[in-house]
Amino acid sequence: MKILMLSSTFPYPPSRGGTEIRTFNLLKYLSQRHSVTLVTQTQAHTPEADVAALRNWVDELVLFPLPEEPTQGGWIGKVTRLAEVLLKTTPPNVLYRYSPALQQWVDDRVRVRQYDVITCEHSVNEAYIRPEFQQTVPTIVDVHSSVYGWTRNHLEMGASPNPFRDRLFLPILYRYEKRYCAKFSTIVVTTEDDRLQLQPFNATAPIEVIPNGVDLDLFPYRSPAKGRELVFVGAMDASHNIDAARFFSLEVLPQVRQHYPDATFTIVGARPTPEVEALGALPGVTVTGQVPSMVEYLHRAAVCVVPLRTGYGIKNKTLEAMAAGTPVVASDRGLEGLAVDSPLRALRANRVEDYGTAIGQLFENSELRSQLSQNGRALIEAEYTWERAGQRYEEALEQAALRTKQLV
């Protein structure tokens, strides 16, 4: 197949965040068997070395500049931008990323039927898909996570960084998601929860659940460590990670240290905000910022905690910890999309006392640590490699292309 992939996020190196990791690994798999054209947007500081490296993974790399996010204009500018959001019922990040030149490029290629299938890697790229496209070429949106569900969940948990804005935007996001879902031949999500969230928005298009994967070479297995170090990993400027780090540091860790005074908590991840950095002043808490190797911290920790209280979608941090052999204690949100209860592959915790009990069990019981370590790794090897995700994505694209041919 000749595949056109649209990604406003420049997906290299595949280590900055979940969007980059998923996009790169899917295109890496597809490019082994198909002709892939990647259209993406670069920023002024995107290194030429990263552009050159990405070219090696696709047949054609087409670059457009990413517009700068508007920040000027004072209150008049803010009101103008808000009016545009309300008028177009489209989130601000979609509006500011939109490139008319990129749109014209896509329109021209669709007109001459140059591709067998078009994929949007993340829902933000839906802006370039016109409803009439699917009459001649299958269009797939890889949603990553429902923006409406994500925002609603943040509001429900009191974790929104701007609750007034998000309450105002919530009905807009609902209409926006419903509108863009109707444009696509196939919708791809990472978890069953997201499938149920989006199903009412498009009753006719198939919704395929394709979880994330792990590069097992980057996250080799190691037997669980001794000691009482707890670790939490992720981008520390993301609202759901900020909330999780604060919740665990301020509410859970003090309870754990009452029973285990030598227990420590290491927060590992790039771009920590001031409120995350401030947690480093608490007893037993270390904030590292960006590190050369995330897996080194996973290997040396006795337990990886994933105390997320908000956010939909499968979590790379959980998959990577299980791949590395680190026993996991996580919330329902941190374990979304994963079957971990039978056989036991991770311990589930949502309340402060749940975390204390689960962490205590793992500190005290080496056999339980070994059980979670081995079972977690086995699950990743069987179901959550990028090879497996790529196979599922390829099948979804081929089925979409077949349905379109039957209709034409």
Task: Give an overview of the whole structure.
The radius of gyration is 22 Å and the shape is globular. 45% of the residues lie in helices and 15% in strands. With 408 residues, it is of the alpha/beta class. It has a 7-stranded parallel β-sheet. The protein is built from 15 helices and 13 strands. Helix 12 links the parallel strand 11 and strand 12 (328-330). The two termini are 17 Å apart. The longest helix has 22 residues, at 386-407. Helix 6 runs antiparallel to helix 7 (163-181).
Order of helices and strands: EHEHEHHHEEHHEHEEHEHEHEHEEHHH
Q: Whole-Å distance between the termini?
A: 17 Å
Global outline: globular
Assess the beta-strand content as a share of residues. Answer: 5-15%
Summarize the entry for a quick read.
By secondary structure, the protein is an alpha/beta fold. The protein has helices at residues 18-30, 48-55, 74-88, 92-97, 100-111, 147-156, 163-181, 192-198, 239-259, 274-277, 294-300, 316-324, 352-364, 366-383, 386-407; strands spanning 2-7, 35-42, 60-65, 117-121, 139-142, 186-189, 207-209, 229-233, 264-268, 285-289, 303-306, 328-330, 347-348.
